[in-house]
């Protein structure tokens, strides 16, 4: 069985690699109750050959979320997996994201369809150094799963057909 990486490469599915990725996101959680290997076992049961790493991360987050009834730290872990996945799909610099939102081209009609106003973009660009340094993306890891999913569904703008978000 193989997974398709974000850059298109294929790699064999590895239990230890998935577990290690989840383990890295368990900092500050109660290790007596949160078991990354248990999540990995459940995730692997739901995989198919050719699954993307985005889908794998989504499944891992959803799996961790289902374990919230066992311990509330699973809700934090689920959110961290989902946030990590989102961060890998979005640009790292706030002003760059805002430019993408303004220059968005609708794939259905090929027309410029800005998601923010020119005035908003101008304000961001005039203050980009200050704004870029004020955005601390690591704070995203403090959400629980319900909070993150609410934010994702209700407030994050999506700029392409793959559903890549802009934070």
Automatic annotation (TrEMBL):
Superkingdom of the source species: Eukaryota
Keyword Nucleotide-binding recorded: yes
Pfam families: ATP-cone
Gene3D superfamilies the record matches: 3.20.70.20
Ranges of residues in domain ATP-cone: 1-92
One of the protein's GO biological processes: deoxyribonucleotide biosynthetic process
UniProt KW keywords: ATP-binding, Nucleotide-binding
GO MF annotation: an example: ATP binding
Any single GO CC term annotated in Swiss-Prot or TrEMBL for this entry: ribonucleoside-diphosphate reductase complex
The keyword DNA damage belongs to this UniProt entry's keyword annotation: no
PANTHER family: RIBONUCLEOSIDE-DIPHOSPHATE REDUCTASE LARGE CHAIN, RIBONUCLEOSIDE-DIPHOSPHATE REDUCTASE LARGE SUBUNIT
Protein name: Ribonucleoside-diphosphate reductase large subunit
């Amino acid at each position: 069985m193989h997974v398709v990486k974000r850059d298109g490469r294929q790699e064999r599915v590895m239990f230890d690699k998935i577990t290690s990725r989840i383990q890295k996101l368990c900092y500050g959680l109660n290790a007596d109750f949160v078991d990354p290997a248990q999540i990995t076992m459940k995730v692997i049961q739901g995989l198919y050959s050719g699954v993307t790493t985005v889908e794998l991360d989504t499944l891992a987050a959803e799996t961790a979320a289902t374990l919230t009834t066992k311990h509330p730290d699973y809700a934090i872990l689920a959110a961290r997996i989902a946030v990590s996945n989102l961060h890998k799909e979005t640009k790292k610099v706030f002003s760059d994201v805002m430019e993408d939102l303004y220059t968005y081209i609708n794939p259905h009609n090929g027309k410029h369809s800005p998601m923010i106003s020119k005035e908003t973009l101008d304000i961001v660009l005039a203050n980009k150094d200050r704004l870029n340094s004020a955005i601390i993306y690591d704070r995203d890891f403090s959400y629980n799963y319900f909070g993150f999913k609410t934010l994702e569904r209700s407030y994050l703008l999506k700029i392409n057909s793959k559903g890549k978000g802009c934070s």
